[in-house]
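Q: Sequence in, structure out?
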Amino acid sequence: MRAITITLTTFAFLIGGYIFWWNTVADAALKQVEIWKKEQTENGYIIFHKPIITSGFPYRVKLEAQSLKVTKLQGDDSDEFETTIPDIWVIAQPWKPSHIVFGSSGTSEHTWIKNSVRDTVSILPGTALGSATFTSNGELKSLAIDINNAEIKSDAYGPASAKRLQLHSRVTSMPKISEGTDAPTSKIDTPAWQIAIRADTIKFENSANLPLGDTITKAAFSILIEGHFSDFKNTDAITKWRDNGGILDVQDMNLVWGKTELSGKGTLTLDQQNYPLGAFSSKITGFNELLALLGKSKNMDKQSLRTAAMALNLISKEDENGSRYLEIPVSLQDRAVFAGPFKLLGTTPLF
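A: Exactly. Output:
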């Protein structure tokens, strides 16, 4: 009987201890949210939501916030941003708080106001899930977001749908020039940010203003950026990154839009007016559609278009499937996209 009593008492203490520990972890998570909100306020953002609901005992800690609203305070550049999400939740195991899983539901709305011009995008996903990992001192190590079967509405392009949208990023390093030094690699490498973005089957209902048709079958980019996540937290940080020579190393890109496919790699940055500036080596299949776009923008007559098409086909190559393709440099400069010497379309500033 005594052994049973001791066993039950020990078991009760263990249960009580775990309950206390779980609540301690949950309280710490709530405090961390408040610390994060304060940091964002210092960066110019106001965050509002209904009281956070804590649940998930005993195997996980779940924090759920409803009616989340994030607003960027108006700065000297008169830019404003606001996003609203009806419901968002975060889950972590009590014994592994450095790894979280998160998700949202309902229609989120995102609004940008620049120079009194308002642009709104709303997204209703079938599912919207993500995960993130952190270092022991709370710095972000990796981030993944996966959105499926999304209905999208925007002021610029009208209604659209996306089968799948993905973002994967992680903290890594990239080599610096190390000539003339025997320093170990860890002393030479610089922090970097790896990003992979992919979108599958984006279909626009209104394609009148779209250059290559109503369906983007695939858009995928793999990018390496020198710096930390914090280098891109706001426009001032991005400007500083740009002025310090920041460059995006586009290691791979692939765009399939209508009958045109563009693949390649190159580098990208921002000019002093924050327009994209870069150069790429590229392979273009379905270049006749791009030629038609060029002809429309330049008001070329039919004879000139036929002559240009013949010239391009003469310098094009044939792949193993019998499709003709061009290998041509693509550049972003002077507020436009160029294929070789030909201007295809204009660009807009990042901010």
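Helices lie at 2-42, 185-188, 235-243, 287-298, 302-315.
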